[in-house]
Amino acid sequence: MLDKNQILSDAKEWFKESFAKSHIANTEKLVDPSEFNINHFTAVYLANFLTGNSNPESIAKALLYPRVLGTSVTTIFGTGIQKFTNDVLGTFGSTTNGIDIEFVDQIDGHRKYCQLKSGPNTINKDDVETIAGHFTDVIHLSRTNNLRVAHEDLIVGVIYGVPDDLNNFYKKITKVHHYPVFIGQEFWHRLTGDSDFYDDLLSAIGSVAKEADFSKEFEEVVKALAQTEEIQLLSNHE
Fold first, then answer.
1. Sign of dihedral through CA atoms 64, 65, 69, 72?
2. Predicted TM-score of the model (pTM)
3. Contacts of 54 (CB under 8 A, 6+ apart)
């Protein structure tokens, strides 16, 4: 029987041990200017735009904020999807090539063969053809083995987001290749049978986020980056 509390517990543990720790480690590396592709023109502009001056700490913040609050987070979550699958959804793991998890859909009762993706913008043009190719292979294999695998039972599951957020490549999977894409609340509802599970999952991860106060350590990263020769020279040239 599906243990929804265990999934929530495992998700919290994954977020704390894999996501948050990786985020901290990636942030601590940013004391080195070589970690950035610094545009000497826009860095000074952005520092002034952000703080009203271009002293070394302001330049450091202008460099750090987009990386720490944007790019780094997206990268960690995207690259961590396989570990999320193993750690949180391991009981649903599939041995079928090109399929991440298998589960009985709690809404329609049919077995689903699912490729998991992290968010609504995490696939590109090439991914569409790769996904469609894997699904075609599964259909051919099922026919060879006399198994029932309907077209609509090959799905893409997106861990977070809402349907309106899906990029055009996800939409192509449905419009051109006719495979369903279930995102956020609907995906988790089909997996667990609980229409409120997605909200519970967000709350569980949110409880971990409250513990992720890295503010003091972040200020140390700002100061260390600001004291480097490259940032000091950039500030002096303003």
1. negative
2. 0.84
3. 44, 47, 48, 235, 238
How far, in Å, CA of 231 to CA of 178, rounded?
Answer: 52
**CA terminus-to-terminus distance, the chain:** 64
Residue type, 129: E
Closest residue by Cα to residue 187 from 78, 107, 73: 107
What's the CA gap between 112 and 187, in Å, rounded? Answer: 11
Which of these, 3, 7, 2, lies nearest to 201 by C-alpha position? 7
Which position has the token pair 């083995």? Answer: 145
* pLDDT tens track for 68-100: 998 888 888 877 887 888 889 989 999 899 999
DSSP state of 93: B
